[in-house]
Amino acid sequence: MSFRPDVTVAAIAEQRGRFLLVEERIEGRVVFNQPAGHLEAGETLIEAVVRETREEAAFCFVPRHLLGIYQWRHPRGTDATLRFAFSGEVSDFDANRTLGTLDEGIIATHWLTRAEVAALGPRLRTPLVLRCIDDYLGGRRLPLAALACLGPSPPDEAAPP
Question: Domain 6-142 is in which class?
Answer without folding.
Answer: alpha beta
